[in-house]
Amino acid sequence: MADPYLKYRTRFTSSLKNELIPLFNNLSRKTRVPKSRLLDEAIEDLLRKYHVVLPDTDVKEN
After folding, report:
1. What would the pLDDT profile of 11-57 be if each residue is shown by its tens digit?
2. Is the Cα dihedral 42, 48, 52, 54 positive or negative?
3. What's the confidence (pLDDT) of residue 56?
């Protein structure tokens, strides 16, 4: 089966501490925010913490 085409996103693989998974799943379920958007927010916050300049993106995701 072919991977779906991702126009504005890039697929990557990582791992998390086991105890974070249920907390992350519950947060996504409770807030009704997709995990990919929660990860975007977390990564952006981390980049800001380390003073990385983020590109100005005008792309709206569907």
Report:
1. 999 999 999 999 999 999 999 999 999 999 999 999 999 999 988 87
2. positive
3. 84
The pair of three-digit structure tokens given for residue 62, joined into one six-digit string? 């569907």
Q: State in Å, rounded, how far the first CA of the chain is from the last one.
A: 24
Helix H, strand E, coil C: the string for the chain is CCCCCCCCCCCCCCCCCCCHHHHHHHHHHHHCCCHHHHHHHHHHHHHHHCCCCCCCCCCCCC
Residue type, 49: K
* Rounded CA separation 12/4 (Å): 14
